[in-house]
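Journal club prep, shared notes

We agreed each person brings one worked example of a sequence with its structure written out as tokens. Mine is Vacuolar protein sorting-associated protein 35. I'm keeping it raw so we can talk through how to read the token line rather than staring at a rendered picture. Sequence first:
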Amino acid sequence: MMISDAIEDEDKWLAEGIAGIQHNAFYMHRALDSDNLREALKYSAQLLSELRTSRLSPHKYYELYMRAFDELRKLEMFFKEEERHGCSVMDLYELVQHAGNVLPRLYLLCTVGSVYIKSKEAPAKDVLKDLVEMCRAVQHPIRGLFLRSYLAQISRDKLPDIGSEYEGDGDTVMDAVEFVLQNFSEMNKLWVRMELQGPARVRDKMEKERNELRDLVGKNLHVLSQIEGIDLDLYKETVLPRVLEQVVNCKDELAQYYLMDCLIQVFPDEYHLQTLETLLGACPQLQPTVDIKTVLSQLMERLSSYAASSPEVLPEFLQVEAFAKLSAAIGKVIETQGDMPVVGAITLYVSLLTFTLRVHPDRLDYVDQVLGSCVKILSNKPKLEDSRATKQVVALLSAPLEKYSDIVTSLTLSNYPRVMDHLDSGTNKIMAMVIIQSIMTNQACVSSADKVDVLFELIKGLIKDLEGDSDDELDEEDFNEEQNSVARVIHVLYNDDPEEMLKIICTVRKHIMTGGPKRLPFTVPPLVFSALKLIRRLQNQDGDVAGEEDPATPKKIFQLLNQTIEALSYVPSPELALRLYLQCAEAANDCDLEPVAYDFFTQAFVLYEEEIADSKAQVTAIHLIIGTLQRTNVFGVENRDTLTHKATGYSAKLLKKPDQCRAVYACSHLFWVDDQDGIKDGERVLLCLKRALRIANAAQQMANVTRGSSGPVTLFVEILNKYLYYFEKGNPQITSAAIQGLIELIKTEMQSDTATPDQISDAFFACTLRYIQFQKQKGGAMGDKFDTIKV
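Then the structure, token by token:
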């Protein structure tokens, strides 16, 4: 209620002030029209007396000031026309000083002073000095600021600058600089004094009002930057020291932040670069509460843009040692402001790193130095819990990845992993994903074991459980994505030198084996396949390589693989381990290493026996074993017999009869390998097929007993197809009579009363018969062979 009353009162006072100005402006206009100087001065002074109020806020006072300002412009036009008022400008300058009140007197004096300078009847520097000194008579902050703002406004185009009509006859650029600096200094004092006025309860309101007035003070710095005569030397020797002196000595948080920001924005980047030491030297002297990180960040941003805009200026940055000065200044600021939050310190170093990457991208020692400074900041603190600070650390770590598309460059930075160690578990994973994304996007190649070691240390958040990890928080989909990303990284690690590649594989193994049961099923397979790729490059190398203490040979790598896959069987993930053992067995076969291949098959069978209990998994596993064994040709008779006997034995022991049947007839391929040196044991093929037929018969009978119908004849048709395959391949044990008998059996089963109609089985059988018919019609030896089968 009190606030709304105060606003209403202010509006009323503003309305009264505007009414007073309008009333006196009317009579002033009438006096101007009749060229009556005395009346014009009388009413203009009364009009300006309305600005003596202390009741209005800066925002409302500005409205009143603008009304008076418009009237003063008309009065100035009148003062310029001497023939109208008949008074010389010098006399006029004396005359207006007789106004009764100081504020109207000074506004009139500034207005006449503008005309006086323009007339050139007196040196500009004398008039300006007189005006800036006399304005000290008004010490009320708001009234004084607007008065001096008016002085700055009417004088800005009348300063004795280079190329200006007011230069010469003793008037120099230095006079213009002195005037603006003095006005700036006095305005800043008035502005700062506002903060000290009023009780604590209205401090917030005062702060807001002060913010509204800041542009009046900053305008002086803008005027300074527009003076053509201020060259680098003058700026370095006079302007910057004087401005900084005022900034530091005012000891006001708002003023210091705003004026430092203003200084950086209005003067040229080249000047900042050449006066970096002076500018940065003021930063630690500012109040501890000043947001110096934003000021310095803006300075570094401007200098970065300056360097990027023109490559020719880069030597200047080295010449002035910009990086060293900025780095030292940031350290001094952090040291001075002992209670600066971590987020503030890290933000400063993010800006410094951005500056370094843009200005000195080739100086990795600078980049590492910035990261090292961050490590010092973070090492004094516990684990980061502030989300803003964490975000800044991620920005810090991401910057080198974005700049150097080659991840290897970032891996040479010794302090990079040390910064990552200070991230919490969740953010560590996010950063690890960013690193992996960078590798995949840029198709970077990490080709040395040392670099791989550093890389996996960086992404350890994805490879093993870190302190503070919680299984409850783990989303399965996110976890799978993370582990698949690690797997992708393993696939892109490569070196042409087999020795170095083996070291890389050993390094990766060292890291991923700490991953625990959830991660190993994702990370072991890519490692195994990477090792198998290396084995194929080294194929047929078995002996020691001359001059190598620890040569990379297939045997050695297979030993490593055996130990690695064994870890999966303990996880447990037996189906995956079995698949990998079989892949290794096939690779050992290609390398002509019979004992190694036999050992891998043995491991696969042990897993099948002891670990795989699920019936579906058993079916898949036995077919994988049969398929792999069929492709191997390294075994002698004894070893092969042992393995094929095992495979056929396990096939016949599967839980479901149809699965038994299919596995047993698949085993027939172990005794008939259709290549030049392949095994061709027709009798054992026939034994397998007959055994499969018996199992199929048993399955039909069981179905008849339990369900009252014999079920479809699919198994018989499948066996028929196997008979036809071997018949076509020339197996002497497979006769047309056996095929004929099987066809008749299928037809009988299909016509049986207990048969279950099944369109798929019928279509399958019909297609098989059509195939026989097709072979007959082909003619030649194959046609004659099939001609004996009646369909």
